[in-house]
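>> received
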Amino acid sequence: MFMSTKTITIAEDAYERLNALKKKEESFSEAIRRLTAKVKLTDFAGILTNEEAKNIKNKIAKSRELSNDRMRNVKEKLT
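>> returned
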């Protein structure tokens, strides 16, 4: 099967970034396909242990609590 090709011009820094992300055995076309592929949320299932997930959940809750405290402080100063 013949695939048509296109020639594109990219900045030197963009080329260097792409080249750094490209695996040794893959072509630039393959690298672009891999890097621009859509990721499904289910691809992340099981990536964290239960303990890691619990720690992250606790950190998010603490961050929200601190953010809410800051918002209350700002509101009090404005009223």
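>> The longest helix spans residues 50-78.
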